[in-house]
User: Fold this.
Amino acid sequence: MSDENDDADIIFFNSLLNEELLLRNLPTYGSLTERRNRLLPYVKTEHRLSRIQDAILRTAEGKEAALMLIKQAIPCIMHMKNRIGGKIITMLLAIGAKRFQPGSRSMSLKNYIEHMERIARTQILGTCLRPKQWKFPTSGDGKEVGQVKVSNKDTQKLIKNLTALVHAIFDKEEDEQDRDAWSCVITNYDAAMEILRQQREYTDDDIDKFQDHVDNFFEEYIKILGVEGITNYIHMLGSGHVKYYMQEHRNLYKYSQQGWESLNAKFKQVFFNHTQRGGNSGKYSEESERSYLFSVMKAFQRELLWISGDAENYFRSVHN
Assistant:
């Protein structure tokens, strides 16, 4: 019975294969395997075309079919400034590390790191009398330059005074062209960010000035670093996507997630300094009986009551 079923399947598949080949004006000679291999690339192409057609139809359905409109995916300018600033600083430090000293690689990098840290601590983030702590970023083994990761405030300070590092790295007379190129990058980027983070609504003139600064920044930046210096946020600047959001919403500061970042910092402070971190139910309690968030939520609720004025009104009514 099994052999008969197998023979029937083969006959059916052979017939189906010939029909599919004839539909596409393809020859039907050859073994079963040869005919199947002949048909396969056409079927794959048709499948890809079908998926493309489905995508086109979804687009034709209009905005109602979209999960989120592009204009609703507003970038957070706080994260943008931090990430782009960190990338610019990282790339500058990496270039400096490659050219700092011709001697021993490890000793050269060590001297270079100390030199950069001294400038950042005493000239950019702090002063000679009151230096600010800052550690040069290195990879895990300490032999390569790592990714700069600092607070938004420190990133802004570093960018505004980055020429101090530029002049320390490109300190020779023949480096004048490099100094000018980096100065152009920093000046135009900082000017663009000043416009972007303003709290009042953007005028058309503001937006045009912003894009002019971005274009000057992007052109010089690509000349220096090429595709190696590109990130998603830098692409958004150079391609005009940020300008689109500025025109569409007229102010991006109000969409910044800086408040949420501050709330995260406060959350950690309350959790680690003012709660028992889930241990308030006793050592014999089950894990399901513990609450890691209850104390934090109570603290936030109290703060909300005072911020809203409800707590003050309540106590005034009680005393009166």
Summary: Residues 32-60 form the longest helix (29 residues). The radius of gyration is 31 Å. Residues 2-65 form one domain.
